[in-house]
Amino acid sequence: MKRLIAACSLMWAMAAGAHPSPQSEVLLESRPGGIRAELVLPLEELALALPGAAHASEAQMAAYLAAHIRPVAPDGRAWVVKIEQVRWLMSQRPADVVATMTLRPPAGAPLDRFTFANDAISHQVQSHLTVVALRSAPGEPSRVLGTLHYGQRSLQVQGADPRWWSGSTDLFRLGVQHIAEGTDHLLFLLTLLLPAALLVKDGKWAGFGGARHLLVYLLKVVTAFTLGHSVTLMLGAWGTVRLPEQPVEFAIAVSILFSAVHAWRPIFPRREGWIAFGFGLVHGLAFASAIRELQLSGARLVTGVLAFNLGIEAMQMVVILIAAPLLILLARRPSYRMVRQAAALMSAVMAIVWMSQRV
């Protein structure tokens, strides 16, 4: 049992100490004689691959990106990469570097068939993901081509794929990764589950309430959180609701602090479902930002949002299936009070750190 408690504590510490890992996005747009590309890179991730990225000159950043963006013709000849502009969006959280560039094929090479490679971050950050999308002309709907990461740094680009479901598998994976590596979302969910197996007595968490009590709690909280974030994910992806990222990220940190206080001492007993729904609305706005930049529309947007949301739910279910047996084993023990309070305290500290970073 001591080993089990130690393992749980280690998992919590890893979750609290890990860092969110936003993905990069590349939007390729067909133009006469070439491809216009816009590359959005999260600055914190980029700084892990390129120390000093925040203070690099535009020329230095352009040279670095040109060395890591490699379009290649079917016969192996390299395309010409010209970095047109680099911008540092320091006022938003998380800060981004946005580069626009022109890609031109060598003489005689087809414009609609080439290999696109990009490892500007992933050659150093193995967990980093880049989503690549393509649209045939300005104003046309875009479609997801695939994702790049440490183990796959290039993909094939071919002419417009008419299938409305193309790219759905990659967006499903993106949803899974968003929860697996989006530490704040995961920490909120885990913290809210800490007292899931306990009863409330005289304003305090009391003993183990039984497996049925735990099942009802999990069903209520997870369903409410899913409903909440699904609503704002859809509205945010459609552009109906759009808020600046900074207050949304701050509100997510606040949701973790609320959950931590509740895990220490019940402040909203039997209303966890409503709280999960309310904060789910906030988390959904953050989820929406992950796919809004891809500029999908029509049927591709509907299937893309659905696939992304299914990825989120799949990863949440994995977390629940791991957490539920542990809660049943631990909540029966007197020592669980110490474990619960230690985990709540760590979550609260992490929430306060994030709040201070996101003001």
TrEMBL record:
Transmembrane segments: 214-238, 250-267, 274-291, 311-331
First and last residue of the signal peptide: 1-18
Residue ranges that the Swiss-Prot or TrEMBL entry lists as coiled coil: none
Keyword terms of this UniProt record: Membrane, Signal, Transmembrane, Transmembrane helix
InterPro entries per record: Put_HupE_UreJ (IPR032809)
Name listed for the protein in its UniProt record: HupE/UreJ family protein
